Amino acid sequence: MRLVYPAVFTEEDGCYIVEFPDLEGCQTFADTLDEALEYAEEALTGYLLTLLEAEEIPAKPTEIKKVNPQDGFVSLISANISSYRETKAVKKTLTIPTWLNNMAVDRGINFSEALKEALIGKIGISK
Which one of 13, 38, 43, 127 has the lowest number of neighbouring Cβ atoms within 10 Å? Predict the structure, then answer.
């Protein structure tokens, strides 16, 4: 699952400060711009994992063109949390109408994948 958020980068006293306007308290800093980009991804990933593990839904990211920094610039930062997040499968039992089951089986639909995609869409996060 990849989530992308805008980050505001400002330079102050030779240091880059990075803040995510949609995620209160999600911030980092570094001595160089390269480090700031790296640390921003780490900060975003850790922040989002903490929210998801607490079963909280992260705020939707603001469109980059709507973020207006006072100073500095805005960049999109990506967090691929799939590689960090627990991926252990959980077995669920569900009931669907026979006609729907038969149509899905005839079309070779993977029930687990279909349910996972539907839940991700319903929750409002992207893979």
Answer: 13
Q: Which residues of 72-83 are buried (b: 16+ CB within 10 A; e: fewer)?
A: bebbebebebee
What's this model's pTM, rounded to 2 decimal places? 0.67
Q: Which secondary-structure segment (H or E) carries 17?
A: strand 15-19
- Note the pLDDT tens digit of each residue in 20-58: 999 999 999 999 999 999 999 999 999 998 898 888 889
CA within 13 Å, CB half, 27: 11
- Residue 59 and residue 20: Cα distance in Å, rounded? 11
Task: State which residues form the domain around 119.
Answer: 89-127
Domain count, the chain: 2
The CATH number of residue 25's host domain is: 3.30.160.250
Q: Can you give the pLDDT at residue 53?
A: 81
> By the 8 A CB rule, do 42 and 28 touch?
yes
